[in-house]
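Person: At home tonight, work slowly through the protein below, taking as long as you need, and write a paragraph about the fold.
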Amino acid sequence: MRQSRRVFLTSSVLCGLAVQATLSGVTPRVSAADWPQFLGPDRTGVSNETGLIDEWPADGPKELWRVEGGVGMSGVVVSGDTACTLIQTDGQQRVIALNVETGATKWSTPVATAYANGQGDGPRGTPAIVGGSVFVFTGDGTLARLKLSDGSIEWSHNVLKRHGGRVADYGMACSPLVVGDTVVVTAGATNGTVVACDSRIGEPRWTSGKGEAAGYSSPAVLTISGWTQIVAFKGASVSGIDLKSGDPLWSYPYSTDYDCNIATPVLVDGNVLISAGENHGSTMLKIGSKGDNFKVAKVWESTGGGSVMRTEWQTAIQLGDYLYAFDNVGSAGPVTHLVCIKAATGESVWRETRFGKGNMIAADGKLFASTMKGELVVIQANSDNYRELGRSRAIGRTRQAPSLSNGRLFLRDDNEIVCLDVRKK
């Protein structure tokens, strides 16, 4: 067993969830303003909402409600009038559902016993809401589907026990990816590095790979060279997987100290961006078509101590021709910059030095960042320079990115969940 390191894993970082796809026979209840999964509607960290604050209120954004939550690193997801997250309290990992208007608890359902880890206790993965159901993956590897209406468990099993494996050093951090009637997680199990189950009944569909460490990223559905596929960033590589059969399509080695590949792969103008902390860096990959056997080539690479971008546990956000991201210096060290780089070349545009560890999303031409200190920072998404609109303390120490739905911004820490009004007045 490796020694614990100061690695902060929020990731579970789900990406590319095809929420628009249907569960068999069920129409998803998804509106443009929903935030139904990690990284939002399109699993890119970008919302299409407009009319959000561009002048900072004297006392910061208005607090709509604040309620007691529990320990954990799971993000908040929203569908209609319901917000969900995973917490740990009273010796159990629980899925809780809140009324988005008031914060009142609708239901609270235990799905696994408490999970303890030196880098933070509780669940890591962010739920996914699809078709009136909530899919969750706990810190110990329990995958479950619950009814959104009342929290009753439709099915549940421990993926690691079923496929042979052990919990990752820092906990299972993958957020479930639901594609049609299939739910996919990165498990790092002996008999399946990536595991797909029938989302209706929970039974295995396929596995891909064997024995590779899971890492702490989450799979994405990306269309590359005309081929829609699952892209999984595992402990030592990134690969494309046929979403129906689980057959491998391509692979690229990307070994990071302590298997700490955490950020979600990002589709950038048809190419795939992967990035990792631990002083690793970033690489943009061009993946060929089926006709050339999905040949993999580097578009650009910036690695090592001089890298322009080393995303520790945050996923870079693309807006137009630019990527906005956190750059963590050293081996999971405390120094983190906020950076803007050119997506096509990896060239540095600007760098706000020592911004601090945090996470962020984008909407209405702005970056909404949460810092580990519990601040909400709103930044103009401007490739010319860093321009901060304002910041204020909103919550305790946190690692989660904000969630946004209908002008409401949700944040959580190990004690509370808060909802802020970020609509333009």
